Amino acid sequence: MAAHTVPGYSPGFKKPPAVLRLKRKRLRRSESPAAAAPPPCGAAPRGPSALARRNPFSSLDNAPRAAGTPQPLERAWRPPADGYPSAVPFWQLLEPVSEDKPTRRAEPYERTDILTLTDDLHSSATVPEVPSSPKHEFPADWSIKTRLLFMSSQPFTWTEHLKAQEEAQGFAQHCRAVETNLPQSLQEPKLSTELRCAFQQSLVYWLHPSLPWLQLFPRIGADRKIVGKASPWSQDEDLQQVLMSDWSVSFTSLYNLLKAKLCPYFYVCTYQFTVLFRAAGLAGSDVITAVISPTTRGLREAMRNEGIEFSLPLVEESKSRKQKNSEVNLEAEGANSLEVDNSMDGGEEPAPSDDDDDESFSWLEEMGVQDKVKKPDAISIKLRKDNREVQMDHKPQSLALVKGTNTFTLLNFLINCKSLVAVAGPQAGLPPTLLSPVAFRGGTMQTLKARSINAKARVRLAYENIFSLEIVGPVMPHSLHALTMLLKAAQRGAFSGVFYTHEPTAVFNTDLDDTHPALNEETVHKDLPACGLHPKTLDQLSQRPTLRKSSIRFLEMKDYAYTWKS
């Protein structure tokens, strides 16, 4: 019988066994010409036993390829079988396979091999556009950086193999707060002992507690890095009390130094939030300030119960912006009516807020349907407000600002707060991390890890030498500015840098009080003479933050002028 043509029916349909037989026939036909053809350049010869059997149910690799069909981009380069990057030519590491392939950003402390550094050399070449107006100084960045990668056409050999005397001199200069003033350009940076000592000085910071086998920064999201490490205090309450008592002494010592203007600022890093304490005169404020981010509703309620007065600057800014927008809309809509009723009182009505829920239903009475619509009761209104407050938890908008004498109350609150330390998990019983640019009681001197790497990058049709300097560790604002001052002189005013930020601290760049005028520079230098910072660094940190909720991601200097991208 002749087969009837049915719509949607394919007469060439075959069952799976028949499909497999066709695949085998195609492989046999292609074996003879493939065996006679020479292997491609660089490919290892493969015997008949090395032919892998294809999966008949695969939708990608099972289909036969036409002659001349290119391979997919992701198969253009594969790592060697032994898994070592040294088996691959170095120039291949510098050329990305595909620009559309997303790159995975690992944690800063993990990305320390040559593969990741060459990947960063390429990513820096495609950094978004920077501001068109170069400046002689970049804005203060109060976020903590976890990794810096500087690049220049001049080598960084002056950072390598410091002598014992240079290292000791750098530590002494840090402890004595010695100011180092370098010329605008150095002809032989490697031979400059003053430059090498200042480089060692810029890498020093102070930490508490000091547990060398644990990574104590960052603390937010650090459980997977601490899990499995020895923590004898997690099950020993007496040891936990000893650690917290020692931590309280160090915390109080830092605050006393801050109050005496001998310490410019310090950070308190817990497993849930970070606190930045700044001395009076910094960030455009004439009083001591403490910034907490991120916060939760429970933390804010506990602070209110302790009598700590604080504000939510970003929430208040959002409300004022909405209020201004609503006022502009109302003025635009009622422009004609204002012209007619110009003889009436010119008093402005307050903008509607969330607290006036009872008055917001007055329009129902005008329509005469107030009895038919059920108004929400006080409990529903409170639940709605609480829901809005909970929604901003763990977000940058939850940033809290404490000013003046309330910072001392905050100090006592944090010392006695039970939720400051985790009760379960890898960080159980571990006190928060204290980071400071100056020495304090119980603090341990630490240094940032630095290393220089030389590589070749393809620029147009040739290869050029790219010299890089990597700084790893908790890079605080003063260290970032000190390093750029050294690079300015050593690299002859031409370098670029890619910065990796601890994201929960990026919101510290918000201008918290724009109602008061900026402080005078003479007043700042008079009040903070012995805080341990270089005068130029002090000038930068005394300015009001201008980066808002972002931080500097890319910094470039050309002809001794800065441009940056946040």
TrEMBL record:
<dbReference type="GO" id="GO:0005634">
    <property type="term" value="C:nucleus"/>
</dbReference>
<dbReference type="GO" id="GO:0033260">
    <property type="term" value="P:nuclear DNA replication"/>
</dbReference>
<feature type="region of interest" description="Disordered">
    <location>
        <begin position="322"/>
        <end position="360"/>
    </location>
</feature>
<keyword id="KW-0217">Developmental protein</keyword>
<feature type="compositionally biased region" description="Acidic residues">
    <location>
        <begin position="346"/>
        <end position="360"/>
    </location>
</feature>
<dbReference type="InterPro" id="IPR024861">
    <property type="entry name" value="Donson"/>
</dbReference>
<protein>
    <submittedName>
        <fullName>Uncharacterized protein</fullName>
    </submittedName>
</protein>
<keyword id="KW-0539">Nucleus</keyword>
<comment type="similarity">
    <text>Belongs to the DONSON family.</text>
</comment>
<feature type="region of interest" description="Disordered">
    <location>
        <begin position="1"/>
        <end position="79"/>
    </location>
</feature>
